[in-house]
Input
Amino acid sequence: MTGLFITLEGGDGSGKSTQAKLLTDWLEEQGHTVLRSREPGGTDLGVEIREIVLHHRGDIAPRAEALLYAADRAHHISTKVRPALERGDIVVQDRYLDSSVAYQGAGRVLGGDEVRELSLWAAEGLLPDVTILLDLDETAARSRLNAANKRFDRLEAEKGEFHAKVRASFLDLAAAEPERFIVVDATAKPEVIAAEIRERVAPLLADRA
Ligand code: TYD
Output
């Protein structure tokens, strides 16, 4: 049996981590074995790459940034995600290649197609079975981040215009692959969003039974 690969995507402050946790808890309650992970930083090596890419004090050239995310991804997919999927487990992952297409491709203007190719090369072609996009406009996202009162990382510190491009790119990706994406309004209450996600994921579990 092969596993099920679920990714969560969205801008900073869209509530992905909360939803990843709620979805994982629900899947585990139903007896599934779940690997909950994230990019960047889903492995020991990835934690070091994450520190560089999010907190390096100087500039990072856009292509170098894309390669750092791709390096994190290559190691994470090869050492953690593929083995879990091969065991037949469910992987719930906070961010994956769509984040690279949106942030490096659209935000840094490297071009979405090239960045997607780079990510697919890094991950040996692995695509998610389903991707949940938590859609939130950048003004709402910014006020959530401000309310959280934590120091912004390199990407969060980017201007509103950058985050608007990222959001538009995510929505374009979802429109281009409607069979893979579930788009959810991230302004709703967490429990309402979680229920919507469960309803959309349940048929995929039935297919596996
Ligand atoms: P994330 O872990 O979601 O941030 P936080 O823990 O602060 O909620 O992601 C870190 C940042 O990395 C986020 O701003 C998006 C960015 N990112 C990219 O630019 N490209 C990528 O490929 C990935 C995976 C993340």
In short: Residues 4-189+202-206 form a domain with the Rossmann fold fold (CATH 3.40.50.300). The CA atoms of residues 20 and 99 lie 16 Å apart. The pocket of thymidine-5'-diphosphate is lined by residues 12, 38-40, 54, 69, 94-95, 99-100, 103-104, 153, 155-156 (CB under 6 Å).
